[in-house]
Design brief:
single chain, 5 helices, globular
């Protein structure tokens, strides 16, 4: 019983750590308009549309590059998003991926 209680406590801590990052991504109007359709509201991805952002291992610079220039089916947003929007999105994606991955 003690191990089960410890397990549930650990799960609660992980969920609490990930919640702010997931919430930041989901509440970003740029992400909601430009990204969520393919990558999911919380960056969870869709098998036939876009990969999970929660599991990316790309660096901040690589994420910015993908946002600006596109990759695969994803269009580039160079000239369509301000640099501050690209920076914010990349930062939120890095935060989501760090908080969603086991430590």
């Amino acid at each position: 019983m003690r191990n089960l209680t410890r397990l549930f406590g650990s799960i609660a801590v992980l969920v609490a750590m990930a919640a702010p990052a997931l919430g930041a991504l989901a509440s970003d109007p740029v992400y909601d308009k430009q990204c969520a359709k393919c990558h999911g509201k919380y960056g969870e991805g869709h098998p036939d549309r876009g990969p999970s952002l929660q599991t990316t291992t790309l660096s901040m610079e690589d994420i910015k590059n993908v946002i600006l220039n596109g990759k695969g089916k994803m269009p580039g947003y160079n000239g369509r998003l301000m640099s501050s929007q690209v920076d914010a999105l990349a930062g939120e994606i890095v935060d989501v991926s760090k908080n969603a991955q086991p430590h």
